[in-house]
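Researcher: Sequence recovery benchmark, item below. Answer with residues only.
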């Protein structure tokens, strides 16, 4: 058994420790004007649904002006709203309505890169003597090579969205760096003018009334200025350069400077969460240590890469023991200093009930169990829209049904290089594509699932007639109502927020089990990650079987019955112990 110490109750400026965050992907949440795309007014119209669910914070994926090359994560103006989603006045109305209902609202901050249509980049691209040339990463071709020749790129780095991370600009015969799409050039954070322009923009949004930021790939903003070559990947034309830009040499300096410039005179009011691919536990502890003044919590990717082989498209399935080891490391590593974010789903991930659960016969059972296990860890839970309904991956029968740039680029690369047949590439996309999480919210069984009065921008999952919010609210035993109970438990039971964490049965292949402790209160959390009954082999199993069942995902077992979990069942038991006994 491994243990992770408890923290004292959160002060007022750490309100987010007891909060639950709900992520909205605006394009797919609710369409108010019947153009097939979700919008801000649609979100405002559905706020009472979120009040009923009980969440505390809303996180909006980008709604800024954008050419939509990466569905809004390519921003062309940081201080306006794309007409596709509405207006600044619509955002103000949403913000006011959320605050009236006791909910906070945070915005996505995407400042590793801009759109190639952002005025900053347009000016930077205008010539080598542009005052903003150094706002982005420009480099000549390799010494002695002609621009555009194979291998002439300044480094051998691969883009995260396939192909080279460098794009040739024909007018200047120089290349610019883009870790993602060529339509998303990377900002040069070594330039102080860039940093302070970003900080000014952030202050502008805080002055407008928003409650913080989720910071997109924020640990990639510091690059090794010498831009060395990376290590070649097997069977890939380009190399992995991540060691030179993931948690780069000045990342902590930049985040501390950001905190000082943006938040120093606004203590205790805001939430900052940094999305950090490749971050380690030790780094996460540094980033979230309140004394260092960087971010409140991080999104790490370790647990959502456990079912992948050499690449994210190489699906190998989940070994539960790996999941427990990963979560256990993060719980222990941030036990005394820092804070965890807890998530299964977001706009970049497949639906967890299809991925780690059973989206067929046991869809409801596994959705409830997965939620129970996640929410009872120590940290702040994040719910992605539709997760509370048990929404599943989409069927995606043809390539034409995909919209995600990463998925389409990957298909082209896999088939073009003969690494996969078209059918094999499609199969990989169906499992791991980001579009699985981006199908429209399923509100009811009516036309277009109540999302819109027009054909949506991406196909709706045909199971919406069964899986939808209207049906879930009407069914007291639904996934939705189980999420409500989990949120209420977090708000009412201090041990859920502040208790220590102790992993149990780390080598069991079926059961996820852990203890939470605070003072004389103990919670035992159990989840069966299988379609077979599972015996809970704990030394004090009989004692726990007689404890109070605080929350369960299936009908209550007979009092005093052996501790055996049914397929995909989750339970939370509570008992009070003498403080000395609870410490053993």
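Model:
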């Amino acid at each position: 058994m491994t243990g992770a110490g408890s923290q004292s109750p959160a002060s007022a400026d750490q309100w987010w420790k007891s909060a639950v965050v709900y992520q909205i992907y605006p394009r797919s949440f609710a369409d108010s004007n019947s153009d097939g795309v979700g919008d801000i007014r649609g979100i405002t119209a559905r706020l009472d649904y979120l009040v009923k669910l009980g969440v505390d914070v809303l996180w909006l994926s980008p709604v800024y002006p954008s050419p939509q090359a990466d569905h809004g994560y390519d921003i062309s103006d940081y201080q306006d709203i794309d007409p596709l989603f509405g207006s600044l006045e619509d955002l103000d109305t949403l913000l006011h309505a959320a605050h009236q209902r006791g909910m906070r609202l945070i915005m996505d901050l995407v400042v590793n890169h801009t759109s190639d249509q952002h005025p900053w980049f347009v000016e930077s691209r205008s010539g080598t003597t542009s005052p903003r040339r150094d706002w982005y990463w420009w480099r000549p071709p390799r010494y002695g090579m002609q621009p555009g020749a194979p291998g002439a790129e300044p480094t051998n780095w691969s883009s995260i969205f396939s192909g080279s991370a460098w794009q040739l600009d024909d007018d200047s015969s120089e290349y610019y760096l883009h870790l993602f799409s060529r339509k998303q050039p990377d900002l040069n954070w070594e330039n102080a003018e860039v940093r302070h322009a970003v900080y000014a923009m952030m202050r502008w949004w805080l002055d407008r009334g928003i409650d913080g930021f989720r910071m997109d790939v924020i640990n990639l903003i510091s690059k090794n200025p010498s831009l060395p070559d990376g290590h070649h990947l097997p069977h890939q034309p380009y190399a992995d350069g991540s060691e030179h830009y993931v948690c780069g040499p000045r990342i902590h300096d930049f985040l501390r400077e950001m905190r000082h410039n943006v938040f120093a005179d606004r203590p205790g009011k805001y939430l900052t969460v940094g999305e950090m691919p490749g971050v380690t536990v030790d780094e996460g502890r540094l980033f979230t240590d309140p004394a260092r003044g960087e971010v409140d919590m991080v999104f790490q990717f370790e647990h959502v890469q456990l079912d992948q082989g050499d690449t994210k498209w190489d699906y190998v399935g989940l070994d539960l023991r790996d999941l427990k080891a990963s979560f256990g490391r993060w719980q222990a590593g941030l036990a005394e200093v820092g804070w965890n974010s807890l998530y299964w789903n977001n706009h970049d991930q497949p639906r967890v009930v299809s991925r780690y659960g059973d989206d067929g016969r046991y869809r409801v059972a596994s959705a409830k169990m997965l939620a129970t296990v996640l929410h009872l860890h120590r940290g702040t839970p994040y719910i992605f829209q539709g997760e509370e309904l048990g929404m599943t991956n989409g069927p995606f029968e043809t390539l034409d049904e995909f919209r995600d740039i990463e998925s389409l680029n990957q298909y082209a690369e896999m088939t073009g290089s003969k690494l996969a047949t078209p059918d094999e590439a499609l199969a990989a996309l169906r499992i791991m594509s980001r579009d699985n999480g981006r199908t429209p919210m399923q509100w009811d069984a009516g036309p277009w699932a109540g999302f819109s009065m027009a054909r949506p921008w991406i196909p709706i999952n045909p199971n919406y007639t069964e899986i939808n919010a209207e049906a879930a609210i009407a069914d007291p035993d639904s996934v939705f109502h189980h999420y409500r109970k989990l949120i209420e438990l977090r708000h009412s039971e201090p041990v859920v927020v502040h208790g220590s964490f102790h992993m149990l049965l780390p080598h069991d292949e079926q059961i996820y089990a852990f203890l939470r402790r605070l003072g004389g209160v103990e919670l035992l959390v159990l989840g069966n990650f299988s379609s077979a009954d599972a015996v809970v082999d704990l030394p004090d199993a009989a004692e726990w079987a007689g404890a109070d069942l605080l929350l369960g995902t299936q009908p209550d077992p007979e009092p005093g019955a052996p501790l055996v979990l049914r397929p995909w069942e989750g339970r939370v038991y509570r008992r009070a112990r003498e403080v000395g006994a609870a410490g053993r």
